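Contributing new complexes? Match this layout with calcium ion.
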Amino acid sequence: AKMLQRGRATLFDEDLSASARVRINLLTRLRAAFCAEQLFLAYQPQVDLVTGRVLGAEALLRWETEDGTMVPPDEFIPLAEQSGLTVPIGEWVLRTACRQLKRLTDRGHTGFRMAINVSHTQFREPGFVAVLGQALQDCQVNPKQLELELTESVAIGHIDSTVEKIQAIRAMGITVAMDDFGTGYSSLSVLKQLNVDRLKIDRSFVQEVQENADTSGIAELVIALGRQLGLVTIAEGVEDEGQRRQLLEMGCQEGQGYLFGHPMPGPAFEAWMATVA
Ligand code: C2E
Ligand code: CA
Ligand code: CA
Ligand code: CA
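Output block (do not edit by hand):
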């Protein structure tokens, strides 16, 4: 029986494609890294495109493995999403970002806005709104200073419950941004129903603002759409002055990108804030 079992295990092993094995291995390492507190957040400034004033920051998840390599979130978040690991990680992100927000407020950066990314499964959790309330209370931060970045995918197949949940979240004072707008299966009617505060223009449209008439047309359309719906628009991935000027001309109000600042770990971000404020 032992032989047989071993034989089956080997067969199973060989059936697993190499890519599946790499993914399982990465997931195991991510789970261990999360337990060992090897994840951290980096904060990237969000600014007023006209004045350059810092309005807030987006918290971005970072994973540095023991040998010092950085695993990009685009690689491990989709994986964590499938395994449900994004729920505990997401709650940790929320609490860590709220604590950082409190520290900034205590250092005189009042009215600072902290944006966090919320995954699809985290948003769909029945207790999500309660978790938000608890984190805000525990960290003593003003709900008006917290923003959630959601992608259009949260609404797929759940439009009514998504509308309700966003309503409940906004009723608490928290603002909501539609992230990566224009890259998914966006529907204008869905955007209108979801009733968010801010529209984030995806980097892919921003990058071609000066190079390519077709895609810069998309950025312009999204900005016009935002204005039509009474939303503030924020462009992500703004890398140079030409893009900033062009976006401003198109009517975009806010920006985020290497032109204004790279994502920085908490202490570096605090030091940076002290130089710009
Ligand atoms: P995103 O939400 O679209 O975040 C913006 C990405 O653009 C970030 O990549 C940021 O570092 C990068 N970026 C910012 N400015 C520039 C620029 O000027 N030029 C270029 N080339 N890139 C710029 P990052 O940090 O690698 O994050 C990738 C994605 O991972 C995020 O895309 C987001 O979808 C996801 N993510 C990050 N943190 C979290 C998190 O805490 N929770 C969840 N659920 N997802 C997260
Ligand atoms: Ca985001
Ligand atoms: Ca984005
Ligand atoms: Ca993006």
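Reviewers usually confirm one structural detail per submission. For this one: Residues 137 and 143 are 9 Å apart (CA to CA).
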